[in-house]
């Protein structure tokens, strides 16, 4: 290891190793997220922390190795029950690099209770040998960035694969032994026939996907596709058209074997993303890599998004210490994204302990008012958003911000 343990702690937490260990031991097994910020090309809609500069890759991979070892030491080999390797494009790692990182995780963390190990892959970057190697290393859930099965739209999005390749890699993943197979599907692409989203979903399920993540194209931040739309050269589908597609997906996907469990995620029974569920359930996670986020106890921090600085150990993490009101607000803000909703009796109990019962009662009043227009549904002390409410979830969840 080239950096000392303290170098991986956010500046405001240096000297707090024992408090972090106590928080980790009190909150159950951790989730571990790794971020590899490298891509062959940058998609036209992308505003994530990624780069095409391969010269930074050796130092970044070394930094991941060091961070894994450091945090295993800081937290004294804590139990981890979900792994997630995202990006960027983790499938740009060589078989040897992926195996070495996986071995480092097993040495630094207790994986005896591991329930899921998820790996993101771009269909244009893998072959059967790589998939077999990843499966042998212990990765058991593959998430493929398909986006759509229209070759013209894939080109517009700047994707490096076509529809034939995406379906071929899905078949190879199953041949390699992946029985948990997820695909990303995007809605709202300029020029997209919205009924084609349903066709793509059915084709992916037929090809073996037992989980779909449905993403609405987000052009809030600067990217080439946003510039095309703002110039008038391309037009986005209307909000009503996109809402119609989400409603249709909610109606159709259960008939094809995939059931909604979160606003944008559908899975066959038992195929939900366990790692992502921990975010919405507000359970602890540790993130390593440029821009990776962590949540442990009352602390939340995000690693530097400057890739070179992070790789060289110069990055400064953005640290936040949550107060009691912020902790309470996150429970419904995240939990209402789930189809099962929030146990409001439990939330009221926590609010009472924290001296925040009036705040919880104000939220409760508002959520009960939203039941009138059919946006929320109460079953005893449990509240959830209805399918109609999920279409306007951003506005509803803003009450907790």
Number of helices: 16
CATH class categorisation of the largest domain:
Alpha Beta
Structural class: alpha/beta
Question: Largest beta sheet: what is the strand line-up?
Answer: 7-8-6-5-4-3-2-1-9
Computed CA radius of gyration, to the nearest angstrom: 21 Å
What shape does the CA trace take? globular
Give me the CATH fold name of the largest domain: TIM Barrel
Summarize the structure.
The protein is α/β, with parallel strands linked by helices. It has helices at residues 17-26, 57-74, 95-108, 128-136, 151-157, 163-175, 194-206, 224-230, 239-252, 274-280, 307-311, 324-335, 344-353, 357-369, 387-391, 393-397; strands at residues 30-36, 80-87, 116-121, 141-147, 180-187, 211-216, 259-262, 265-267, 285-288, 293-296, 299-302, 318-321, 342-343, 376-379, 382-385.
Give a structural overview.
With 401 residues, the chain is α/β, with parallel strands linked by helices. The chain folds into two domains: 5-280, Alpha-Beta Barrel (TIM Barrel), CATH 3.20.20.70; 324-401, Orthogonal Bundle (Arc Repressor Mutant, subunit A). It has 16 helices and 15 strands. A nine-stranded mixed sheet has the order 7-8-6-5-4-3-2-1-9, sandwiched between helices. A three-stranded antiparallel sheet has the order 10-11-12. Strands 13-15-14 form a three-stranded antiparallel sheet. A hairpin with a 2-residue loop joins strand 14 (376-379) and strand 15. Helix 2 packs parallel to helix 3 (95-108), helix 7 packs parallel to helix 9 (239-252) and helix 13 runs antiparallel to helix 14 (357-369). The longest helix has 18 residues, at 57-74. It is globular.
């Amino acid at each position: 290891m080239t950096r000392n343990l303290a170098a991986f702690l956010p500046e405001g937490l240096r000297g707090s190793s024992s408090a972090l260990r106590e928080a980790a031991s009190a909150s159950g097994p951790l989730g571990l997220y790794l971020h590899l910020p490298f891509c062959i090309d940058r998609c036209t809609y992308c505003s994530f922390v990624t780069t095409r500069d391969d010269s930074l890759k050796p130092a970044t991979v070394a930094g991941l190795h060091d961070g894994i070892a450091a945090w295993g030491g800081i937290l004294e080999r804590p139990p981890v029950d979900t792994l997630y390797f995202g990006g960027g494009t983790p499938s740009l790692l060589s078989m040897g690099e992926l195996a070495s990182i996986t071995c480092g995780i097993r040495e630094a963390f207790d994986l005896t209770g591991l329930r899921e190990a998820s790996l993101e892959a771009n269909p244009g970057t893998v072959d059967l040998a790589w998939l077999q190697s990843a499966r042998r290393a212990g990765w058991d859930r593959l998430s493929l960035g398909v986006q759509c099965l229209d070759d013209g739209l894939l080109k517009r999005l700047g994707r490096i694969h076509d529809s034939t390749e995406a379906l071929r890699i899905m078949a190879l993943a199953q041949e390699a032994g992946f029985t948990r197979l997820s695909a990303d599907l995007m809605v709202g692409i300029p020029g997209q026939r919205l009924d084609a989203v349903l066709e793509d979903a059915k084709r992916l399920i037929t090809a073996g996907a037992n989980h779909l993540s449905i993403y609405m194209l987000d052009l809030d931040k600067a990217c080439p596709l946003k510039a095309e739309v703002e110039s008038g050269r391309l037009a986005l589908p209307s909000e009503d058209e996109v809402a119609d597609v989400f409603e249709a997906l909610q109606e159709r996907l259960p008939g094809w074997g995939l059931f909604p469990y979160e606003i944008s995620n559908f899975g066959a029974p038992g195929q939900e993303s366990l790692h992502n569920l921990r975010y919405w359930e507000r359970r602890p996670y540790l993130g390593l890599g440029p821009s990776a986020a962590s949540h442990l106890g009352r602390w939340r921090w995000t690693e530097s998004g400057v890739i070179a600085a992070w790789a060289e150990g110069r990055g400064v993490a953005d640290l936040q210490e949550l107060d009691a009101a912020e902790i309470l607000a996150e429970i419904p803000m995240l939990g209402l994204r789930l189809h099962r909703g929030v146990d409001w009796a439990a939330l009221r109990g926590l609010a009472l302990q924290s001296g925040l019962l009036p705040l919880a009662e104000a939220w409760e009043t508002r959520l009960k008012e939203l039941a009138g227009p059919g946006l929320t549904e109460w079953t005893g002390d449990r509240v959830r958003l209805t399918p109609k409410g999920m279409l306007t979830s951003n506005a509803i969840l803003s009450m907790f911000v």
